[in-house]
């Protein structure tokens, strides 16, 4: 018989939780130390609900846990921060399998280890629906917070990696028949794969999103080399709600327009193969790629794309409130038919 | 017709949220500044689920919001911290009334204002069950964190206020007939009340728990006057799970025993009147009073109870692993029959 958390009891559940928690849990709150010199704290929080944000049909317990960590870590990266620690509260129906929640903690913990941070606390409660609520803390050098409202006319628009692959992975998970399109070898990332390996590699983009702390490390490195003075020159956000949405949000918050270099916008072969005519649609609106969309002077942008493999300048910030001289929505639709 | 969040839409909901949020919400994370000099951060988180932790039958939306804030703030106070900020994620079914969630934010905000802190971020998602997840972070002077495992033999055990009133409030909310016991005037807090006023005052103990930051301020004041050197002399936790539980937890974590001064243990008239023979039961196990149970040298404890109205020395820490020489559970049961 499969063990449920009801038979495990509250103490048993707490015992599992503690295995994945770095601190001596037992006090009312977790002690975190002070912020590092010349750093400040940023905080972000996300709630994930069963059948709204994840599903047993498409996502293993480990992937749910990874995802719960990654979406929050991506928000920290989007602000230019390094992770400091996370807390996770979990609401569970009594018939939840112990194996499921263990899998969630394991995947969560694996993501945290990958990015050098820790689970420092949490709460476990009864709920009729499986619910995860994560809060992540990060630290960012003072005056180097990446925000949405500071893009400037003349800035290059940079994306840190390909878009549309998370959508491609999701489609593959739902539509068995799409797999037939992937029999021939294709380059994905740095590898050439075909068949089942290729399917799995694409699904992984959806299942294991990657917060781009590597991009932030390069930002800091470049700024240090430049001995940069004056206003912090970088703005942006992550593309969790889609590439088009990120560009539009930055433009709206900064009261500027944008010109997109449509011919430079990379669309990877896997997305073309799976999406056909709708490839650009997936790239612009697919969402959940968790790349960063950053605006910065061209001189910095060129150094940045030289140092970060896969990063591309995809446009520039212009005066006005339009994208390619069109209403934001129609600008994207115009190139999307 | 009553407006639901479904008809309001995501943007409308976000607009309500922003009214109660101090920061410019719009970036991926909230910027908080650095910890103050010689302070460190503590973090706590709690999830509250409809029909598990609150109910329309006993709790107004405002009180749900207040409670969600207060339980987290009490955890900060229990660590000796002052609040720095909070985030709240909310999961809502589409048919949730807009008035309900507005009430929650209003009550939450009222509690935060009372204790001089702010809502700095959050998330709003769809969920089949109303769920609130709050994370609170606070700052505490370095080496002055109040923990459970540092109680020492010879310490006095102090409680910051009366126990059993939250339970009394809950009983009154469920059992209409109990109100008849409250026709005669009774002293409650610093007032003498009777009838409906008395009922309401008692219910309020359950509906509006009070984090004891005032007690923490007195702790810091006394320590400052003492010019205290060496190990931090104060241990403890809050009594959210009951007075008996707090004493037992501290003893277990510190590997000590306790002697309780049963004759000094105050039981207020309202609890006696409502609970009858079970008054001590309510005091020990009622729970949710959110007082602090602190252990400290008698010399400090005497100053502390002199300065904090309602605080009482209720026992002392002794060698061993028993309370009053008995197994922890039976120690409390022994005096409870």
TrEMBL record, chains A, B:
Superkingdom of the source species: Bacteria
Residues holding ATP: 105, 122-123, 148, 240
Binding site for Mg(2+) 5: 241
InterPro entries assigned to the protein according to its UniProt record, in alphabetical order: PurM-like_C_dom, PurM-like_C_sf, PurM-like_N, PurM-like_N_sf, ThiL-like
Positions of Mg(2+) 2 binding: 46, 75
Pathway membership: Cofactor biosynthesis; thiamine diphosphate biosynthesis; thiamine diphosphate from thiamine phosphate: step 1/1
Positions of the PurM-like C-terminal domain: 153-323
SUPFAM superfamilies registered for this protein in UniProt: PurM C-terminal domain-like, PurM N-terminal domain-like
Binding site for Mg(2+) 4: 28, 44, 75
Residues that bind substrate: 53, 288, 332
Catalytic activity annotation: thiamine phosphate + ATP = thiamine diphosphate + ADP
A Pfam family reported for this protein in Swiss-Prot or TrEMBL: AIRS_C
Gene Ontology biological process terms, A to Z: thiamine biosynthetic process; thiamine diphosphate biosynthetic process
Domain PurM-like N-terminal residues, every copy: 26-140
Residues binding Mg(2+) 1: 45-46, 123
Described function: Catalyzes the ATP-dependent phosphorylation of thiamine-monophosphate (TMP) to form thiamine-pyrophosphate (TPP), the active form of vitamin B1.
Additional notes on this entry: Reaction mechanism of ThiL seems to utilize a direct, inline transfer of the gamma-phosphate of ATP to TMP rather than a phosphorylated enzyme intermediate.
Family: Belongs to the thiamine-monophosphate kinase family.
Protein's name according to its UniProt entry: Thiamine-monophosphate kinase
Source organism of the structure: Pseudanabaena frigida
Gene: thiL
